[in-house]
Amino acid sequence: MASESMTTQTTTWFGSTTEHSGLRSPRQYALVTSETIDLEALNSELITGVVNALVDVIEPAAGQTTLSLYEHVNPDALEDIIKASTSKKSDIEVRFTVENYLVTVRSNNTILIYEPLGAHRGTGENPCPAS
Q1: What is the pLDDT of residues 82-111, one digit of tens each?
Q2: Cα–Cα distance for residue pair 2/77, rounded to 1 Å
Q3: What ranges make up the beta strands (E) of the chain?
Q4: Of 14, 39, 43, 74, which sits most exposed with the smallest number of CB within 10 A?
């Protein structure tokens, strides 16, 4: 595996160039998926796209097919921020976490989902053991 020249796109909560002080370094995340929602096609909605991308990545418990964003972010406010940014032709991104995943929604309708580095998807292990 060391002979492979694969690069993993990583980020931290505040981006990769932010300086941090203190003893604890910020959690790093690896990109799991990136999707661009075409809002014109099939009358798609941004929030529906975010939920669908999350469900695909998180793989909810057996039988669960939906995810409520209200537990993590206000979907109406998120959509309003993205729409306002688009109409003003300004680039922004909104970040929030869902079950340890870092979700980034950009004003160009791109959704990026990152998992914490060292996470073991599908093993049932705690990806962030207490230090």
Answers
A1: 888 877 778 889 999 988 899 999 988 899
A2: 44
A3: 10-12, 28-36, 93-98, 101-106, 110-116
A4: 43
At residue 58, the pLDDT reads 81
Looking at the DSSP bridge assignments, the partners of residue 96 are 103
* DSSP 8-state code for residue 44: -
Dihedrals phi, psi of 77, to nearest 5 degrees: -65, -40
Taking phi over 0 as left and psi of -120 to 50 as alpha, with beta for the rest, 27 belongs to: beta
Distances (CA, A) of 95 to 36, 42, 59, 64: 16, 26, 20, 24
Tokens of 12: 């931290």
End-to-end CA distance of the chain: 27
Q: Identify any residues that bridge with 97 across adjacent strands, giving them in sequence order.
A: 102
